[in-house]
Amino acid sequence: MKKHNKKLVIANWKMNLLKDPAINLARKISEAGDISVDLVICPPDLLIDSIKSQTNISLGAQNCSAHAEDFGACTGDISAAMIKNIGCNYVIIGHSERRKYHKENNDIISAKITNAHKAGLVAIICVGESLEERQEGRSHDIVLNQLSALPPTSTPENTIIAYEPIWAIGTGKSASLTEINQMHEYIRFEKDFKIVYGGSVKCDNAKEILSLGQVDGLLVGAASLDFEQFYKIIK
Ligand SMILES: O=C[C@H](O)COP(=O)(O)O
């Protein structure tokens, strides 16, 4: 049974935008009226401080360190405590691009979620199967295994689950409404948290996806980089 009424739209800018266009986009979004959803933008880390100081948008990071300490000899890492300190309230963890390019497994993802919770951040945990896994009928098992990375600190208040089938990310082919609703229902049976959908969300399919009973919101990649399109989504 769906319990969460307010829709949430999370923009994942990934590794895109230089400083000036990023600030311009964030300011346009911040100053836009008639926004009917809760909104979170996850820019590249280097842009967070500038956007924080020039807009009133709620912000998140796209990753955090798995290291157990907030500070230390961990070259290139940014801790959850640092992300919180710079003014973010959210962090995306376990995106399929990080699972693929950085070989993140359940142990690493679990450590990152624990760190996010300890820092007072809401962890947005990405789960989803590949096309091959779906065709083999293993979607539920894959997602269930990914959900097992959630540490005992996870609650509906500090954790959001993003269902992102890998075959729908950046392909222009989103999952069908039935596929989305069924997987969200399955996830909710395991974890009754806020569950958002990601994967080729555009202005022309966002409304019907958001209207699904099991969908609490969206995680938007490419379409969040274009103001006109993103505004139609959040309006
Ligand atoms: O985090 C966002 C997802 O990877 C979706 O990306 P996309 O909207 O470009 O398909």
Automatic annotation (TrEMBL):
InterPro entries: Aldolase_TIM, TIM_sf, TrioseP_Isoase_bac/euk, Triosephosphate_isomerase, Triosephosphate_isomerase_AS. It catalyses: L-erythrulose 1-phosphate = D-erythrulose 4-phosphate; D-glyceraldehyde 3-phosphate = dihydroxyacetone phosphate. The active site is at H95 (electrophile), E164 (proton acceptor). GO terms for biological process: gluconeogenesis; glyceraldehyde-3-phosphate biosynthetic process; glycerol catabolic process; glycolytic process. SUPFAM superfamilies: Triosephosphate isomerase (TIM) (SSF51351). It is found in: Cytoplasm. Keywords: Cytoplasm, Gluconeogenesis, Glycolysis, Isomerase. It comes from the Bacteria. PROSITE patterns: TIM_1, TIM_2. Its EC number is 5.3.1.1. One of its GO terms (molecular function) is triose-phosphate isomerase activity. GO terms for cellular component: cytosol. Substrate binds at N12, W13, K14, G170, S200. Pathway: Carbohydrate degradation; glycolysis; D-glyceraldehyde 3-phosphate from glycerone phosphate: step 1/1; Carbohydrate metabolism; erythritol degradation; Carbohydrate biosynthesis; gluconeogenesis. Homodimer. HAMAP family: TIM_B. Belongs to the triosephosphate isomerase family. Involved in the gluconeogenesis. Catalyzes stereospecifically the conversion of dihydroxyacetone phosphate (DHAP) to D-glyceraldehyde-3-phosphate (G3P). This is Triosephosphate isomerase. It comes from Candidatus Arcanibacter lacustris.
